[in-house]
Predict the structure.
Amino acid sequence: MKLALVDISAESLSKAKDSLNSGGLTETYARDVSKLDQWQDLKSSVEQSFGGVDFLMLNAGIGLKGGWEDTEYFHKIIDTNVFGVLNGIATFLPTVRQQEHSTSIVITGSKQGITNPPGNPAYNASKSAVKTLAEHLSYDLRSSTTSVHLLVPGWTFTSMTGGTAVKEKPAGAWMPEQVAKYLEKKMGEDVFYIICPDNDVTTEVDKKRILWNAGDIANERQPLSRWREEYRTEVEKWMAK
């Protein structure tokens, strides 16, 4: 296997490369994915080292906290989480599609972009946008040999979810390897929405939460009703079904 790994942190890339035993070529590239010019430079480097691209995974994401008056908070998250994906598609889609065999694009979303819990509107909005981009890309490539998949992890023990601050994995979290295996399984079944469970949240619970959220619109409820006190009893009955 040949791997091209991209991250803003050269230190993280070095650690990742050291931990891999891919049995093939692994190259690392320190780039800011929110910057289109850095993607264009990356494309030249990757094509020179690898030729083509068979599997493109767009996984960049940051999670910050801020208030409604903090526009920098919104810009930072959307620049990385949304334009990091869009820049990757714009740059590498022609390369992926020119392969003579089947290829795949995996875009990492979030359950927060689907069920939209309160507390981090910029992150939720960014992941909702990523979901929309992935859906449209899948539709536009429906007659091609390139499959598109939206990977939505559950609680996963990574640096973004506290994996660097907490040495021991919480019982409810999955390891990244479990997410990768689940992704591989669902890709083999040609599933687009790959919604991962974890050790706390089952697939059935995820389905109920997603359906309840969609019901806010269909049933003319107040937004984010799952977290509103006046809907508490109704939500509990729904989740207990």
